Amino acid sequence: MTKLKTKRAAAKRFSLTGTGRVRRNQANHRHNMTQKAQKTKVGQRGTVIASDADKKMIKLMIPHA
Question: What distances in angstroms separate CA 40 from CA 11, 28, 30, 54, 61, one per listed residue?
Answer without folding.
Answer: 27, 10, 13, 24, 31
